[in-house]
Amino acid sequence: MGTRECIPVSLPSGIARDIELLVQGGKFSSKSEALRFGAKLVVMLEKGSIGAVRKE
Q: How many domains does the chain have?
């Protein structure tokens, strides 16, 4: 992946808590990684290429 852009985000507390649980459970190494994965899913869904999803 090339350069990155920092985008501040505000989440409902329930979603933030769920993301923290995913990190604590070892599904992601950080909250940032989980949010990047979620953003990638949204873009792929909108482009119609959701079948090729994988974590990086």
A: 1
Is there a domain that residue 8 lies in? no
Residue 43 lies in a domain: yes
DSSP string, the chain: ------------HHHHHHHHHHHHTTSSSSHHHHHHHHHHHHHHHHHT-GGG----
Q: Closest Cα partner for 55 from 21, 18, 20, 30?
A: 30
For 31-45, how does the pLDDT look when each residue is reduced to its tens digit (9 = 90+)? 999 999 999 999 888
Place of tokens 């604590």: 24
What is the radius of gyration, based on Cα positions, of the chain? Answer: 12
